Amino acid sequence: MDQLTIEGGHRLRGNIRVSGAKNAALPVLAATLLTGGTFSIRNLPRLRDIYTFKRLLTDLGVTIEETDASTDRNAPVLEVDSTSLKSYEAPYDLVRTMRASILVLGPLLARSGRARVSLPGGCAIGARPIDLHLKGLELMGARLKLREGYVDAKARRLKGAQIYLDIPSVTGTENLMMAASLAKGTTIIKNAAREPEIVSLGEMLNKMGAKIRGLGSDTLTIEGVDDLSPVDWEIMPDRIETGTFMMAVGASGGELILDGCMPDHLQAVISKLRSTGLKIDISGRSISVSKKGQLKSVDIKTAPYPGFPTDLQAQIMVLMALSGGLSVITETIFENRFMHVAELRRLGANINVEGRSAIIKGVKDLKGAPVMATDLRASACLVLAGLAAKGTTTISRVYHLDRGYEKIEEKLSRVGAKILREKTGQLF
Ligand code: EPZ
Questions:
Q1: How many domains does the chain contain in total?
Q2: pTM attached to this predicted model
Q3: Which of 102, 203, 278, 401 satisfies CB 3.0 to 4.6 Å to 379 for a cystine?
């Protein structure tokens, strides 16, 4: 097990190039199951979850080759070919480590009429059901059986359907959009999620020959086609990584310029951070962030895109813990996404949780201590807290962090942070 040791109190200064988005890359990789032939996918982030998804695809019979990085970002280019699928099963031991494995359900069912995917089970931040995925597929004619912890799905050919999502589920929208692309007839998905990662997936599907309209809105119209073709595709930049580094300036002071990002995907975050007093300037694909003096307290309520993203809730809590007053953060997406509060309290934060709201009273400073990562974004929050805290903070279980951040300690060290990754002898 690795741990990170951070010596706080060092201002950040310099440029960071953001990586490809994990939550865009996973559905793109799943979409390669929709047709045989070779896809060429660029700007994939080097993340634990991407490695796990590649393993899942390989087990299904997909061939994956990493060619030399042909772009200046030194990110790998993957050649992916699912011509000879040999299985339609996503096993429990993979799915339980990465819920996004559920994204193979729709494509497998649409491509080969059969899929057997382990139910993901819950995770640290909530029960994470998939009922909306299943309801949508049933409306499209799939016959589903839930047994031994698996979804066993069959469909000679999916048919177009009218689907209303009770909740704008991100992967639910992605699964159903991919499945509908090869259905017979037209599918309309209402109350669809509008995240940029969904728009990017839809654009790739259209480049493959799908006929999807309404991308970016809450109503998607997908006219099914008989077959699709493989394409070259570049993964969009990670808006959550970008937001995390913007907040690192709020935690430790200084100035960062984030390159290769898509500022338009962060409007709610930029607006909120400006109201805390951070200075934020946008120039094309770069965002510069600087901090002058103590931050103001603001209230935050997470919401589906284009609202404030739940994946940045833990990170902004660090800034509010050091702000000049009282703030309330309300988490409306997941029922248990305050696991980082107990760890922040160990560093001296003054936070009380009442239901789905955390009430934060700003303190003058945080003091370094040993803390434990509980989930991906909570671990990012602890890194920011370590940058801000006086003294040394050690973060255990950083495998959580590696799921969604590519070499975060290297990127932060290059701009002045004192952060070291060490191997510990612990098994867990
Ligand atoms: C995606 O998860 C992201 N993961 C999450 O990022 C992100 O936090 C989440 O969307 C919300 O933005 C990927 O894209 C791989 P949902 P997803 O389905 O699709 C409930 C990260 O840190 N729901 O939009 O699983 C669900 O319980 C991860 O990168 C149902 O009730 O989230 C939750 O309360 C964490 N039934 C809400 O909807 C369903 O069938 C939103 O979940 C599906 C979801």
A1: 2
A2: 0.96
A3: 401
